[in-house]
Design a protein that fits this description.
Helix content is 36%, strand content 21%. The protein has helices spanning 32-41, 58-69, 84-98, 119-132, 174-182, 186-190, 195-201, 221-233; strands spanning 2-7, 26-27, 30-31, 48-53, 75-79, 106-111, 134-140, 164-173, 207-210. A hairpin with a 2-residue loop joins strand 2 (26-27) and strand 3. The radius of gyration is 18 Å and the shape is globular. Keywords: Cell wall biogenesis/degradation, Nucleotidyltransferase, Transferase. This is 2-C-methyl-D-erythritol 4-phosphate cytidylyltransferase IspD. InterPro entries: IspD/TarI, IspD/TarI_cytidylyltransf_bact, ISPD_synthase_CS, Nucleotide-diphossugar_trans, TarI.
Length: 234
C-alpha cells in the first residue's frame, strides 16, 4: 500500500505579521495547501492521502478539501503534532490503526508549503522507497557552504560537490520507519529535524532522488512572492 502524508502542522512563525499559517495563505487564486494536495490527489497510486493540520485549523482544512475536492474518500485530515516528527508519528499511527499494511507499504511525506512538487518527483520517490526503503529529494548545492559554530567565525568551508540541499518528499517503508522511531533515545529525538535523519542516526541508507529548483518551500514573505511568479510562468 502507498500513503501520502501532507505535513501542514506548523504555524508558520517566520512568515511575518499574519495570524494565518503559511500553508493557508493564498497563492494565485487558492490556498497554498490546495495546490500541494492537488499534486497528490491526481496520482491514483495513493491508497490514502493524510493531511496533518494544526488543531485550530482542522475544520477549516476539511472545509477547503470539500470545496476543492468534493466528497473525496481518499483524503483525510488529522491533527498535527508539536514537532515535525510528532506530526509524522500521528500519520503512522493512523495508518497502523486503519490499514493492514505489510513490510513493502510506503509513506511519501511532503511539506504542505512546497506546492510545485512534480509528478516525476513523486513517482521517483515511490520507486526509490520501494526499492531502497528510504529516500530524500535533493538538489545539488549551488552556493559555497560555510560552517560556523558560533555564528561569528568560519570553522570550515567544505567541498561543495559533496553537499546537497534537502527538499521533500521524503519517503520510507512504513514498518522500517516505525521501528527506527521507536528505537530513538530521548537525546536522539531532541536533535531531529526531519525523518531522514532518523535513518542516518541508525546507520541506515537513504537514497537520493533528484529534486527541482522550482520545488521551493514557502517560508518567508519573499517566498510567497516568488511562488506567485513561478505560478504565472507555469
Amino acid at each position: 500500500m502507498i500513503f501520502a502524508a501532507i505535513l501542514a502542522g506548523g504555524i508558520g512563525s517566520r512568515m511575518g505579521e499574519t495570524d494565518t499559517p503559511k500553508q493557508f495563505l493564498t497563492l494565485g487564486d487558492k490556498p497554498v495547501i490546495v495546490h500541494t494536495i492537488e499534486k497528490f490527489a491526481i496520482n491514483s497510486k495513493f491508497d490514502k492521502i493524510i493531511v496533518l493540520s494544526p488543531k485550530n485549523f482542522i475544520n477549516y482544512t476539511n472545509d477547503l478539501i470539500k470545496e476543492y475536492f468534493g466528497d473525496n474518500n481518499n483524503l483525510v485530515v488529522l491533527e498535527g503534532g508539536k514537532t515535525r516528527n510528532d506530526t509524522l508519528i500521528n500519520a503512522i499511527e493512523y495508518i497502523n490503526d486503519n490499514f493492514d499494511i505489510d513490510d513493502d507499504s510506503i509513506i511519501v511525506t511532503h511539506d504542505s508549503v512546497r506546492p510545485f512538487v512534480t509528478h516525476r518527483i513523486i513517482e521517483d520517490n515511490i520507486k526509490a522507497a520501494k526499492e531502497f526503503g528510504a529516500c530524500d529529494t535533493v538538489v545539488p548545492a549551488t552556493d559555497t557552504i560555510v560552517e560556523s559554530v558560533d555564528s561569528k567565525l568560519i570553522k570550515n568551508i567544505p567541498i561543495r560537490d559533496n553537499y546537497y540541499q534537502g527538499q521533500t518528499p521524503q519517503s520510507f517503508k512504513i514498518n522500517k520507519l516505525s521501528e527506527l522511531v521507536n528505537s530513538l533515545s530521548e537525546s536522539e529525538s531532541n536533535i531531529l529535524t526531519d525523518a531522514c535523519k532518523i535513518f542516518v542516526l541508525k546507520n541506515e541508507d537513504v537514497y537520493l532522488v533528484d529534486g527541482e529548483i522550482t520545488n521551493i518551500k514557502i517560508t518567508y514573505p519573499y517566498d510567497l512572492k516568488l511562488a506567485n511568479t513561478i505560478l504565472k510562468e507555469i
